[in-house]
Write a structure and sequence with these properties.
The chain is of the alpha+beta class. It has one domain (9-158). The protein has 7 helices and 3 strands; from the N terminus they run αββαβααααα. It has helices at 2-12, 39-44, 59-82, 100-113, 117-130, 136-140, 146-158, and strands at 15-25, 28-36, 48-58. It has a 3-stranded antiparallel beta sheet. Strand 1 and strand 2 (28-36) form a beta hairpin. It is flat and about 50 Å long.
Length: 177
Amino acid sequence: MLKMKKCLEILNNLTQYIYLASGVKKGEGFWIVGVKNCDENIHEDKNLLDCYRKEMIGNQSAKEILFAINLNIKNLLNELKDKNYLLETPSVGISFDIPLDILETIFDFWLDTYKNKEAWEICLGLLKIRKRISLTNLIDGKTLKGNSKKWAIKLENLHSYEPHSLCNAKLNDPMWK
């Protein structure tokens, strides 16, 4: 029983690679942020084209950072959708309509923030709030103070991208038809 517990601890502490890459599947391009257990698995994946960010970290850390990155991107995409921006929705990964530099900034932010436990907890909490509401009103209304306000401003900047493409100008059908 003790040996089995020790083996599980070792498995849970294995290092992982968290990465940001471009890919194509069935002629459809996409970005992907993912986790793989070794460098070769990233390079051997036939769907991936180029790897732009790759960092070796612990298994649990990789899962937590991946969660934050994906939630940040999901929040951004939902906000753009709510503003009626036309974005391609690939069957896999993230739309190429989001520029690489935006994704790199989000990736780097969460990777760097994870190194500071206090900042990580504040930012993750704010990100979860950001899922429901913009942090701008909390910042402007002086609800947030000190480090929370500083991090909230940085998180809002991660959600500030707006594409140059036109919004979906879908008109409602007239009531009388």
